[in-house]
Amino acid sequence: ASGLPVDARASGPAPNLVALAKPPVNWHAVHPPTVVAGEALFTVINGGATLYMQYGFRRAVFATFQNPQGRIVNLEIYEMVDANAARNVFDQKAGSSGRKIPYGREARLEAHYLNFWRGRYQVTLSGYAATPENMAALRSVAAMVDKRLPDG
């Protein structure tokens, strides 16, 4: 997924998205993070980009990490125009199913996905299986990202 277009509109007062997507200690990035903004989102998640665009998408970062045990976690951090937009996207993505867990303002863990939102950010983490080891890996990365995200 690296090498995708980076839109110049991604700059601004928001935190550096690449810094938000650094791997946890002892993990490594499978490939460099990819940052996209505006319409470039369609080049990464063509079928799902419309949801983000309708609520006010600004930019996103995509990263894939691997822990020392070989577990893979995909991380997507979407910066929206405001907290209401992030919450709306979260509501659409997470729905009412899944288990509530204590990340961000609200989080849900379901199968091999974990979604949460904090401030103007909506975060999706995914693994490749719903095993206890993979779920622990998702939660580990979620906890790290949650600590890094600003509330605004």
Structure write-up:
The protein has a seven-stranded antiparallel β-sheet with strand order 1-2-3-7-6-5-4. It starts with 16 loop residues before the first helix and ends with a helix. It has helices at residues 17-20, 49-55, 83-94, 132-148; strands at residues 28-37, 57-66, 72-80, 99-100, 106-110, 113-118, 121-126. The chain is α+β, with helices and mostly antiparallel strands. The longest helix has 17 residues, at 132-148. The protein is globular. The chain contains four helices and seven strands; from the N terminus they run αβαββαββββα.
Write the layout of secondary structure elements.
Blueprint lengths: L16 H4 L7 E10 L11 H7 L1 E10 L5 E9 L2 H12 L4 E2 L5 E5 L2 E6 L2 E6 L5 H17 L4
Name the features:
seven-stranded antiparallel beta sheet; alpha+beta; 152 residues
Q: Tell me the strand percentage band.
A: 25-35%
Annotation, overall tally of beta strands: 7
- Structural category is alpha+beta
Strand order in the sheet with the most strands: 1-2-3-7-6-5-4
State Rg: 14 Å
> Helicity range of the residues?
25-40%
Helix and strand run: HEHEEHEEEEH
Describe the global form: globular
**What profile does the largest beta sheet have?**
7 strands, antiparallel
Low-pLDDT parts are 1-13
Mean pLDDT: 87
Number of helices: 4
Determine the N-to-C terminus distance: 28 Å
